[in-house]
Amino acid sequence: MQTSASHSPSLPTARQTTSVRMPGPARHYGRYLYLALNAAILIFLLAPIAIVVVFALNPTPFIQFPPVGVSLRWFEKFFASRDFMQALGFSLEVAVLTTLSATVLGASAALALARGNLPGTRLIVATMLSPLMLPAILTGLALFQTYVLLDVGRPTWGLVAGHTLVTLPYVVRTTLAVLHNFDTRLEEAAQNLGASPLRTFFEVTLPLIKPGVMAGAIFAFIVSFDQFPVSLFLVSPGNETLPVTLFNYLKFDLDGTIGAASVVSIVLAFVVVIGLDRTVGLRSYVKL
Amino acid sequence: MSASIEIAGVSKVYDGGVRAVDTVAMDIRQGEFFSLLGPSGCGKTTTLRMIAGFETPSAGAIRVDGADITHVPAHKRDMGMVFQNYALFPHRTVAENVAFGLRMRGLDKTTIAAKVKAALAMVELSGLEDRRPAQLSGGQQQRVALARAIVIAPRVLLCDEPLGALDKKLRQQMQFELKQLQKKLGLTLVFVTHDQEEALAMSDRIAVMNGGRVEQVGTPTEIYDQPKTRFVADFIGDTNIFRGERVGPNLDVGKNLILALPATEAQGAAVLSVALRPEKIRLTLRADVAGAAGSSVHGMVENTNFLGGAVLYRVTLEGGHRVLVQQPNAGTTHLFVPGNGVTLEWTPADLVVLKD
C-alpha cells in the first residue's frame, strides 16, 4: 500500500511535497529574520561601548545626545591626571602579576586534577571554581576580614592574591578542557623516544595544552584589569586600581574623563588579545 | 644492536582484581619477528606496554639480553614503538617528529639532520619533511611513525596494531615493507595484532593469547597445522572441531560418525577434541568412490561460498554434523552446487588432537 501511494500522483502525496518545501519568498523571509535577530543581538552587546565612545569624544562636560562635536579634551585630561596615570600603571602591574600567578597555579592544578588520580577530584574542582559562583563582593569582604585578622595591612601581594582567587577558575576551566581531549599516548611516545617525564612535559604536554592555558591567561588578565568588588576592599589609599579610582572620581564628577578612561581600558584589552595572538599564534588553536 | 627479550612469569593485576595478564612466559629471540595474537582483551597490548615500560608488572620479570629491566623507566629502555594511531606529535613537522628521539639522545644537529634524511628515505617519505602530521594520509603517517621509531636504532621495535587503520591494499603493502625492513635491519620486533592472517603472514613466531594467558607459541605453520588447544584451532583460520569418546583406535563423535585417530594418538585421554582443517578434506561426487571407514563419510552440499582462489562448502553429513570443506579453484576440480551428494575423504594424520 505504501508503495502504491508513493507512485500514484494522488492528492495526499502532492500536499506533502508542498508542505515540506517552502516556497522561495518564505524561505527568504526566514533568512532576513535570522539576520535581523543577529543584528539586534550585536547592537544590544555593542551599544553601551558605542555610547561610552561617543561620551568620551563629546566636548560637553555632561552626557548629551546627539553629541555636539568631536574633541580629545577628555583624553587629554585623563592622561594629564597623575591620579589616573598612577592607577592605570598600578592596575596593569596587578593584572600582569595576577595573570602570571593564576596561570601557573591554575594550569598546575588542572594538570594534577586531570592526571593525578587524586581522591575527591570533583569536590576539588567544584571548590576551585566556586569563586565564579560567589558574588565577588563577598570574596572581597572575606579577604578583607582575613587580612585584618592576620594584621597584614593592605599590601600589593594581598591584592594580587585576591585577584588570583577570582581569576583562577578561568585558567583551571580552560586548561581542564584541553586536557580532557589530550591523547596521553603522545606523552608515552615521547618517553619511549627517551624523553624524561620533565622533558616530556616541556616538549609535548605544554605546547599541546598551550591554547587552553593561554585562553585562561587572557581571561585572567581582563578579569583582573576590570576587577572592582574585590579591589574595593583590598586597595590602600593612594595605591588604587583604575576601576576604584574611576568609582571615586564618579562620586564627585561626571564628565567625559570617565568615558576616555573606559575607551583606554577597552583598547588595552584588545591590545592584550591581539598581542597574544601575534606572539603565540592563538588563532591557530582557538577561533576568536 | 638488536636484543632478545625474556618474559618470565609476568602478571598484571589491576585495581579491582582484573587479571589482564596471567603468568605469561616467553622468550623472544634476537632479530625475530614475534607476534602477540589474540582477540581484544586477551592481554596482548598490556604485555607490550609492560615491555615498553608504560605498565609495571604485578609479578614476574622482563629481561632484555639477560638484564632485568622490570623497573627501568620507559625513557631509559631504548625501545622504539609504533602506536596504534601513530601518536605523532601534531605540533611538530615530519622531520621534527623523526628527530625527536635523536634530540633526546643529545646528538648534534648535523648528525640528526643526516639520520632523519636517511630514515625518511628508507620509508620513502623524502620531500615531506616540513609537513605536519595532519597534512599526511594514513599510510604516510604510518611511515613517519615507523621512521621515528627506527631512527634511534632501538634494541627492540614494538608495534601495537600499527596497520589496523589502513585499508586492505595499503595494509598488505605495508606488511611486506615492514617485514622487509625488519629483516634488513635485523630488528627484534614485537608485533601486536588481532588479525590472524597478518600474524601468519609476517611472523617468525607467534604467541596466541587468550584471557591473559599464552595458549601456544610457535611458528605460523605450527600454529596453523598443529594447534595445541581448542582456542588456537578455532581462532586461527576456519576449522572443524569434533569432540567425542575414544573407542579403540577411533573417536566416536556421536551422530553415527566415527573418526580414525592418527596413529601417533593411540594413547591418551578418553574424551577429547580433534580439529580438521577444511582444506585437508577432499570432496568427490558421491557415486565416484567408496572411501575407507573412519576417514571418509557421505554428505550433501548445503551452501557454497566462492572465495575466488578457492571454494568453501558447508556440507551436512548423513548423521547431521556440519562440516566446512575448502577446495582450491584449480580448474581441474569440480565445482559443486547445493544439493550435490558428496563423499568427504581425509588422511587420519591430518586430525589434530586438542587440549581443552
UniProtKB/TrEMBL annotation, chain B:
Would you tell me the protein name for this molecule?
Spermidine/putrescine import ATP-binding protein PotA
* MF terms in GO: ATP binding
Q: What protein family is recorded? A: Belongs to the ABC transporter superfamily. Spermidine/putrescine importer (TC 3.A.1.11.1) family.
Q: Which reaction does it catalyse?
A: ATP + H2O + polyamine-[polyamine-binding protein]Side 1 = ADP + phosphate + polyamineSide 2 + [polyamine-binding protein]Side 1
Free-text function comment from the UniProt entry:
Part of the ABC transporter complex PotABCD involved in spermidine/putrescine import. Responsible for energy coupling to the transport system.
Subunit structure and binding partners: The complex is composed of two ATP-binding proteins (PotA), two transmembrane proteins (PotB and PotC) and a solute-binding protein (PotD).
Record EC number: 7.6.2.11
- In Pfam terms, one family for this protein is ABC_tran
Q: Which Gene3D superfamilies match?
A: 2.40.50.100, P-loop containing nucleotide triphosphate hydrolases
> Residue ranges of the ABC transporter domain?
5-236
Mind listing the UniProt keywords for this protein, alphabetically? ATP-binding, Cell membrane, Membrane, Nucleotide-binding, Translocase, Transport
Q: Which InterPro entries match?
A: AAA+_ATPase, ABC_SmlMolc_Importer, ABC_transporter-like_ATP-bd, ABC_transporter-like_CS, Mo/tungstate-bd_C_term_dom, P-loop_NTPase, PotA-like, PotA_ATP-bd
Q: Specify the enzyme's EC class, one word.
A: translocase
